[in-house]
From TrEMBL:
Keywords: Cell membrane, Membrane, Transmembrane, Transmembrane helix, Transport. Gene3D superfamilies: ABC transporter involved in vitamin B12 uptake, BtuC (1.10.3470.10). This is Iron ABC transporter permease. PANTHER family: FE(3+) DICITRATE TRANSPORT SYSTEM PERMEASE PROTEIN FECC-RELATED, FERRIC ENTEROBACTIN TRANSPORT SYSTEM PERMEASE PROTEIN. The keyword GTP-binding does not apply. It is a multi-pass membrane protein. InterPro entries: ABC_BtuC-like, ABC_transptr_permease_BtuC. The lineage of its organism: Bacteria, Bacillati, Actinomycetota, Actinomycetes, Micrococcales. Belongs to the binding-protein-dependent transport system permease family. FecCD subfamily.
Length: 325
C-alpha cells in the first residue's frame, strides 16, 4: 500500500506540473516559477499561469470528488459499473442547475450545489426504480442502461433550455459535457463545507462497504446498522457528485476508471480503494484536461469528452466481465 500511495502522489505532482507547463502555449519551468513568485515581467505569461492554476485546482477537487463517489456507489450497489456519470446522476444535477439558472435566476456556486443535490437525488430514485423493473440477474447492465437513458434525456433537456437563451448557450455550454476551463478556483471555497462533509462520509464508509459486499444479512450479523450506514455513505456520494457537477459540469467515467484501476493495484479492500482514489482521481482528471489542450490546438477538447474516450472502453470491458462473455 505504501508504494501505491507514493506512486499516486507522484502521479498527482506530475499531473499538476504538466497542467502548468503544457497547453496551446507551452511554458518553461522558469517562466512558471517567475509567474508564481511575481518576479516575471510578462503579463501575458502571468495570466496564462493564473488561468492554469484555476483549472488545475478545479480538476484536482472534481477528480477526487467523482472518484470517491464512484467507489461508494459501486460498493453500495455491488455493481461494478455504478458511477455518477454512467448512472446519469451528473447529468441530472447539471439539468437541475441549468433549470435553476434559467427559471430561478441562480448565479452562485452555492445555489448550483443545492440545485445539483436535488437533481442528483431525483435521478438516483428514477434510475433505481427503472433497475428494479428488470430481472435481478441483469441488474448491473440494466442499471447502466437506465442511467444512459436518463443521461440522454437530461442532456436533451439541457440543450432545449439553452437553445432558447443564446446568452445561456454561450455561457454555460460546459453543462452538457463538463469542463474545468474558465472556472475560478475561488469557487471551491464556496462549496468547501459540502465537499468536506461528503468526503468525510465517503472516506469513513470503508467498513460499511466491506460489510455490504458480504451481503446485508451477514453485515447485520457483524453488528452493522445497515440502513443508517448505507444512508450515510449514499449521502456522501450524492454530496460529492453534486458538488463536482456544480463546479465543472457533468464529467463521466472518472468514477468508473479510477476505482477499477485502484483495485488492480491494491485489491478490493474499500479502505485502501477510497484512500488511493483520492489521489488517482485528481491525477486522472488533470491529465485528461492536459490531453484536451494538446490534441487539437489551438482549440481545446473539454475534459468531459477526453474522460469519455478513455472510460467507454473500460465500461465495455467491465460489462463483458460481469456477463461472462
Amino acid at each position: 500500500m505504501a508504494w501505491a500511495l507514493v506512486g499516486a502522489a507522484l502521479a498527482v505532482l506530475g499531473a499538476v506540473a504538466a497542467s502548468l507547463l503544457l497547453g496551446v502555449q507551452h511554458l518553461a519551468p522558469g517562466e512558471v516559477l517567475a509567474a508564481l513568485t511575481g518576479t516575471g515581467r510578462d503579463p501575458g505569461t502571468a495570466a496564462i499561469v493564473a488561468a492554469r492554476i484555476d483549472r488545475t485546482v478545479i480538476g484536482l477537487v472534481v477528480g477526487a470528488a467523482v472518484a470517491l463517489s464512484g467507489v461508494v456507489l459501486q460498493g453500495l450497489s455491488r455493481n461494478p459499473v455504478a458511477e455518477p456519470g454512467i448512472l446519469g446522476l451528473n447529468s441530472g444535477a447539471a439539468l437541475a442547475v441549468v433549470l435553476g439558472i434559467r427559471f430561478l435566476g441562480l448565479d452562485t456556486v452555492g445555489g448550483y450545489v443545492v440545485a445539483a443535490i436535488v437533481g442528483t437525488l431525483a435521478v438516483a430514485a428514477l434510475v433505481q426504480a427503472l433497475t428494479l423493473m428488470a430481472p435481478r440477474a441483469s441488474a448491473p447492465v440494466s442499471m447502466a442502461l437506465a442511467g444512459a437513458a436518463v443521461m440522454a434525456l437530461a442532456q436533451s433537456l439541457i440543450g432545449a433550455v439553452l437553445v432558447t437563451d443564446r446568452g445561456s448557450l454561450d455561457s454555460f455550454r460546459f453543462w452538457q459535457v463538463g469542463s474545468v476551463a474558465g472556472r475560478d478556483a475561488g469557487q471551491v471555497l464556496d462549496v468547501l463545507p459540502v465537499l468536506l462533509v461528503g468526503a468525510a462520509l465517503a472516506l469513513t464508509s470503508g467498513p460499511t462497504l466491506d460489510a455490504v459486499a458480504l451481503g446485508d444479512d451477514l453485515a447485520r450479523g457483524l453488528g452493522q446498522n445497515v440502513v443508517v450506514q448505507r444512508g450515510l455513505a449514499a449521502a456522501g456520494a450524492v454530496l460529492l457528485a453534486a458538488t463536482a457537477t456544480a463546479l465543472a459540469g457533468p464529467i463521466a467515467f472518472v468514477g468508473l476508471v479510477v476505482p477499477h484501476l485502484v483495485r488492480v493495484l491494491v485489491g478490493v479492500g474499500h479502505r485502501r480503494v477510497l484512500l488511493l482514489s483520492v489521489l488517482l482521481g485528481p491525477a486522472f482528471v488533470v491529465l485528461a484536461d492536459v490531453v484536451g489542450r494538446l490534441v487539437a490546438p489551438p482549440s481545446e477538447v473539454q475534459v468531459g469528452i477526453v474522460c469519455a474516450v478513455v472510460g467507454a472502453p473500460v465500461l465495455v470491458l467491465v460489462v463483458r466481465r460481469v456477463r461472462g462473455l
